[in-house]
Amino acid sequence: MKIQTVCGFGCGSSLMLRMKLEEVLKKQNIEAEVFCGDVGTCLSSKCDAIFISEDLYSRIADRATVPVIPIRNFMSTAEITEKTIKFLEEYRS
């Protein structure tokens, strides 16, 4: 599974989100490749899901061919865990 974390330029908050998401996945014993991307090019990168800030969500949600998961607080382990588990349940179905 490949998951992309996205922010405006692909090197700031997406890196923080990637690290938090990797932490959540590790606690859930789930292996995935998590990589950073920017909002301008993220739709051209092959992945199974995109985790993105709520602020940028509307810029790609209607054009994405994979699930787009909006995150309000990139530092909230609880929010990221909840949304990751929900995504994984739907992904496995």
Task: Describe the structure in brief.
The chain has helices at residues 13-27, 54-60, 77-92; strands at 2-7, 33-38, 49-53, 68-71. The chain has 93 residues and is an alpha/beta fold.
Q: What does this 3D model show about the protein?
A:
This protein has 93 residues and is of the alpha/beta class. It has one domain: 3-Layer(aba) Sandwich (Rossmann fold), CATH 3.40.50. The chain has three helices and four strands, in the order βαββαβα. The protein has a four-stranded parallel beta sheet with strand order 2-1-3-4.
Low-confidence stretches: none
* Outline: globular
Rg over alpha carbons: 12 Å
Order of helices and strands: EHEEHEH
Tell how many strands the DSSP assignment holds: 4
**Average pLDDT value?**
94
Which CATH architecture would you pick? Answer: 3-Layer(aba) Sandwich
How much beta, percentage-wise?
Answer: 15-25%
> How many domains is the backbone divided into?
1
The major β-sheet equals: 4 strands, parallel
CATH top-level class: Alpha Beta
| End-to-end CA span | 14 Å
Count of helical stretches:
3
Strand line-up of the largest beta sheet: 2-1-3-4
